[in-house]
Amino acid sequence: MAKSMFDNKSILITGGTGSFGKKYVETLLKSHNPKKIIIYSRDELKQFEMQQVFNHPCMRYFIGDVRDKERLTRAMRGVDFVIHAAAMKQVPAAEYNPMECVKTNINGAENVIDAALDNDVEKVIALSTDKAANPINLYGATKLASDKIFVAANNIAGGHNTTFSVVRYGNVVGSRGSVVPFFQKMIDDGAGHLPITHIDMTRFWITLQQGVDFVLKNFSRMYGGEIFVPKIPSIKITDLASAMAPELEQKIVGIRPGEKLHEVMCPGEICYSTFEFHDHFVIAPAIKFSSRSNDFTENALNELGSLVPEGYEYDSLNNGDFLSVEQIKELNSHACL
Questions:
Q1: Of these residues, 9, 23, 46, 131, which one is catalytic?
Q2: Counted domains in the chain
Q3: CATH number of the domain that 138 lies in?
Q4: What is the 3-state secondary structure (H, E, C) of 239-262?
Q5: H or E element that contains 40
Q6: Were 16 and a residue from 39, 214, 234, 248 both cysteine, which residue would form a disulfide, CB within 3.0 to 4.6 Å?
Q7: How much is the average pLDDT of 242-262?
Q8: pTM score of the predicted model
């Protein structure tokens, strides 16, 4: 096993019992040699179930809510790296319970930052979503606010060496609560059709493993203040339904509250601060940093990027990379094993 930056380090994952956290832990244990992995989440049943699978001596399970700053601060003692994955992310639930979404996604982000600074954590990466770009729903709006808070945290670090960055990507194949397991359950239950919100709807498509690998890589790339966006393919929702159940009828049911027809990850309005690299984009901070340059044309791995053309927007409709029905089938079969 090659030496890595995570060897003999302590890593804390908020919301670590989710799909991302489990795959992240699996990858860390398989390819790295961490000193400690701390799962910080509020559901004791999910932690118990995760312990049955991940019971390595380096594993620690910490019951707590990101809304609880004191508990977070205690959990981060001696921690080197933090991945902030905890969020209230169901779009309709957020629309109907707005203050709960604000408390978790915005106040929780502030608590993670304060706890990291109080413990001199080395690096923090917060997970974002394509819904944070030009948001039209509350979930996206709270995640945009969270992104801004994490970026600005690099300016309030003061004498601390803690750096903060954000990773933003699209729909994760097979993640809990996403469309693939929803469709699959309907198919398994013998449904006569699959519901399609809109015939033209498109989405970015990424596997859990791709998301985890991208986050791991960005711990090495980051200076602090960047929003990292991977280059990933798009799909048509109708093609997804055809890939999963070609024999079933597709019925248009209408767009849900707060749902977009297409998703954006790099808005055209901020093209002047968006840099393209060979396999990803970097959105540079809108604010000036007091401690370092705002030039993000070269990252900490010495990879070189360039400013995107004026007006350029990275969105799921105009993405040059669309998966075919057969490609969706193949990707889903590997991703959902």
A1: 131
A2: 1
A3: 3.40.50.720
A4: HHHHHHCCCCEEEECCCCCCCCCC
A5: strand 36-41
A6: 39
A7: 90
A8: 0.94
